Protein 1
Amino acid sequence: MQRRALLASLLATPALAQTFPARTIRVVVPFAAGGAADSAARAIFPRVSERLGQPVVVENRTGASGSLGGYEVARAAPDGHTLLLDASSHLVNPHVMRALPFDYTTAFAPISQLVTFPQVLAVKSDLPAQSVGEFIALARSRPGTLSVGTQGNATAGHLGLVQFARAAGIEVTHAPYRGGADAARDLAAGALDAVFITMLSARPIVDSGRARFLAVANANRTTLRPLVPTFAEAGLPGVAISE
């Protein structure tokens, strides 16, 4: 989490540093509360508030694969007091969504990359699949019937799921949510068979025993869960994506 880089970027211009911030800063997170982006914002921005001497308020504006939150910030005054903490949808949405009421390429000025979250495949605790190979075999025996939740259409989880399904030659049912935390809750309740979301969003239900990790879509195993194999180790080297 690059707090120093964020603060340095905000105060990089001498003229701006003399007048900024003049009031409360809004940080719009276009995903549901409790998910990876929301958790990152609520961990980082209290420190930003301390350093800048002004309140920083985190707001969740969900929907339309993050574009509703993006629109909220795009139409705000361009004075640095309304920020967008976005994810991969910032790059993907312009290419997959029609008639957006704003232009991602001109509406925002980038400040800093704060965090990177690997995507994971996690399954409900009673699903008869203990590995990626067993999940693939189960999906092939039940074409299109296994439901897999993601944090929304065109998100990193959705793209990772498409990568996985194509590489494995399986057909599953995609269930898009407003955020990874919402998908994780439904997985824990048994309403989904699996999720393809960030490790941070899935970790609480895995730790509680209501789900388990099968693989991480990362080049290497993560230090947060060193026993969770990568998709490459499961024979699918092309499945790698992070948020």
Protein 2
Amino acid sequence: MNASYITPAITIFDQNGNLDLKSQASLYENLIRNGIDGILVNGSIGEFFAMTFEQRQELARFAIKTIAHRTKCIIGTSDMISDHIVPFSREVLTLGADAVMIIGPYYFPMKDDQLFTYFDSLLTQIDGPVYLYNFPDRTGYTIAPETVLALRQKHDNLKGIKDTISGMDHTRELIKVVKSVYPDFEVYSGFDDNAAHNVLSGGNGIIGGLSNIVPEICTAWIRAMREDDTAGIARGQQTINRLFDIYSVGPLFVPIIKEAAKIRGIIADSCCTFPMPPATPEQCERIREILGREINL
């Protein structure tokens, strides 16, 4: 089966809120060494929404240079100021990013015709591969499969979508509606535990945050899918199901994912953008308990 595991990389900050590029490079190296199929920079788990535009530019430039085509590099260029998106996207594509990813406007719900107009304008102006990002828990609306199909019919540079929805109903519709017409269109789920369901349904895999913490488990699972290893797929699903308890440790998942990466020794500091609170001692203990069931700490 065709299957990929892409990491939406966490962004590492020091105690003063500055980018910690040395630790960031170590994170990328760990992901590449463990065989991750791609790295998404400036995604939701990467806290793009709370970073300055200059920080996002700096991180994107650094990531492109550091990843250096050793795995796929996708840069999130989303912004509530649409005039930022096009020049930012053009810059990173010129520098060597494999693609950009763009979420729709947030804060106010958008209707299908408004979303078509919005993405149509951006796709017209960006000369390079673009992925859409559907995250209704954060935007307040869902991009309809028919809207995605209409956009793909008009724009060859629309390459795929990340569908961050806990269930698979909407993702299955995207696969049926869009991939039935454009088989090369890529549909990724946004929650790790949906990866196998996505692939078995004809999708392309996952862009999931657990791979920041356990890339070796994630890549073994996706390899089992590629090799049609039913037993390996089942083992991977059960392991990921247990590890997915990480997301229930606290109401804000970014500090928890970062603390888990710190506990594993992948990063040195778990600082987040203000006002996200650090993990509490009780939460850290729970993280250790969850990880300890599957790996040696």
